[in-house]
Amino acid sequence: MIFLRSLLFNILFFAWTAVYCTSIFWTLLFPRPVLIAAIRFYMRSLSFLERHVIGLHYDVKGVEHLPRDGAYLVGAKHQSMWETMKLHLLFRDPAIVLKHELIHIPLWGWYAWRARMIPVKRGKRGAAIASLVRGAKEMKEMGREIVIFPQGTRVAVGEYRPYKVGISVLYDELKVPLVPMAVNSGVFWGRKTFLKRPGRITIEFLPPIPPGLPRDVALFELEARLESASNRLAVAVGGAATLNPRTADPGNAGAVPVDVEG
User: Fold this and answer.
1) What's the mean per-residue pLDDT of the chain?
2) Among 223, 230, 184, 222, which residue's Cα sits nearest to residue 82?
3) C-alpha distances in angstroms, 27 versus 20, 40, 46, 85, 115?
4) Every domain of the chain and the residues it spans
5) What is the DSSP string of the chain?
6) What angle, rounded to 10 degrees, do the helices at 32-49 and 2-23 form?
7) Which of 197, 236, 258, 229 is closest to 62 using CA atoms?
């Protein structure tokens, strides 16, 4: 049954995406909010398919931790493509940090460019960081939420990858609150997997890390909180915990140590 539901969902997902992305081409000629509204409708339609074809639902916790006004950073755990399709339903006007190559994908990339995402060219580290900071500062002036996946890629449940310095540089440069966003989506919708499992995904926003901490301390605090919360959410639905060598204990929400590597 899971195989058949996954097969039907994948067929509908790709067919609907192709039809919809083609049909909203006209939004590129109008002010940006028109495109954002179209993106939101698309994401709601995918949620409808998830519920009625796969039996996949989701809950959002901790919304009280999101600042009500102004720009802020979101450090989001990235386990699946699933959470990328919910960002415009979670935030007012998110500016998502993404790989520059994605901008060159026909239609999809044009929409990402028009929606004013933050593309970053991979390559020379200094140039990449500079373009990231420059783009994020522009989005801060617009009062937008700046969403970044601190591990830089999707990471399977139970797998560990180190957190990259990009988010700590943004935290230091922007001087705005940093909100950790934990998920357990990978238990139901894995990285590069065909099967999508029924159940209930949880997104949980954690208390923000206030601006002003040393860069390395903020990065450690983000990693400790985010890994601990994502482990807790994954284990609650039968997933595996990740042993984080930085915090030593997968259940440690970790007080900041005296000495932290940069």
Assistant:
1) 91
2) 184
3) 12, 13, 19, 19, 10
4) 57-236
5) -HHHHHHHHHHHHHHHHHHHHHHTGGGGGS-HHHHHHHHHHHHHHHHHHIIIII-EEEEEE-GGGS-SSS-EEEEE---SSGGGGTHHHHSSS-EEEEEGGGGGSTTHHHHHHHTT-EEE--SSHHHHHHHHHHHHHHHHHTT-EEEE-TTSS---TT---PPPTHHHHHHHHH---EEEEEE-GGGTB-TT-S-B--EEEEEEEPPPBPTTS-HHHHHHHHHHHHHHHHHHHHHHTT------TTTS-TT---PPPSS---
6) 160
7) 229
**Sign, CA torsion 151/207/117/33:** positive
Q: Which amino acid is at 7?
A: L
Tell me the pLDDT tens digit for each residue of 37-57. Answer: 999 999 999 999 999 999 999
d(CA 17, CA 71): 30
In the numeric block, which tokens belong to residue 199?
A: 């159940």
In whole angstroms, what is the distance from residue 222 CA to residue 213 CA? Answer: 12
Nearest to 135 by CA among 164, 109, 166: 166
Q: Residue 236 is encoded by which pair of tokens?
A: 């609650």
Q: Provide the token pair at 97.
A: 């940090």
Backbone phi, psi, residue 56, to 5°: -105, 120
The torsion defined by the Cα of 203, 209, 215 and 219, in degrees rounded to 10, comes to -30
Q: What is the pTM of this model?
A: 0.90
**Looking at the domain that runs over 57-236, which CATH code has it been given?**
3.40.1130.10
Encoded tokens for 230 = 């994502």
The amino acid sitting at 158 is G
203-228 confidence digits (pLDDT tens): 999 999 999 999 999 999 999 999 99
| Residues 198, 56 contacting (CB under 8 angstroms) | yes
Q: Are 187 and 83 in contact (CB under 8 A)?
A: no
